[in-house]
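Justification of computing resources. Each target in the renewal requires a structure prediction run like the one illustrated here; the chain below, 270 residues long, is used simply to show the kind of job we budget for.
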Amino acid sequence: MLIHPNPDPVAFSIGPLAVHWYGLMYLVAFVQFVVLGRVRIKQPHIAAIGWKKEDIDDMLFYGVLGVILGGRLGEVLLYNPSYYFSNPLEIFEVWKGGMSFHGGFIGVLIAMSLWARKAKRHLADVYDFIAPMVPLGYAAGRLGNFINHELPGRIASADLPWAMIWPGVDHPVHPSPLYQMLVDGVLLFIILWLYARKPRPRLAVGAMFVMLYGCARFFTEYFRVPDFDVSFAGVTISAGQMYSIPMIIGGAILLIGAYQFAGRKSATKA
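Resulting structure tokens:
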């Protein structure tokens, strides 16, 4: 078995100011968004519709607000409202962890819709552009969860080579933040980046991300201690799985619709 390294959550301090690893992981996420965005605008089919470096820098401001506000409000309202309403000051202590991807996802959708309106760009084009850059940012966030020893996994067999002794837990568990970092983050990035390298129907890339993330998250939730369980169609699933089901269904519908609309458009032109 492995032992969780249990590092100090504080990366370094400058006088009274403590800089946490969790916060640095969000900085990493935002930096990689800019780096990947500048690679993406060089792809011929992206350059052809006029994306520029200035667009990336401008979007980043909106995206940061969407991620932080949406992620925190999602954690408060979707996962642990009773605790935060009893301890309202802790809502602002984001450096301790506790950010909901589903809340952040909604926050980014809203933020990008505001940016698209300001920049006079088609909203679907904006979603398609940013979608391949999101999974690695998510992976950085999950690494931050691991450093903070958050989100312990379910009980694992002691024979599992990567079963881990987690701080404060007296039995081996699955290192679920690492599973989600690798599957929901790195693997999804590879698939989506390769898919988005070629021209696709409008909204197809964004829809593919929504559907695949929902599928990946539904799978990796089986290894994570759920925030709470719910009964769905007579089957008990976790809260994370419940919130992922609409993403799977909605993403699939949007993906099919994107290809059907593109097909009808091509037939009309012919």
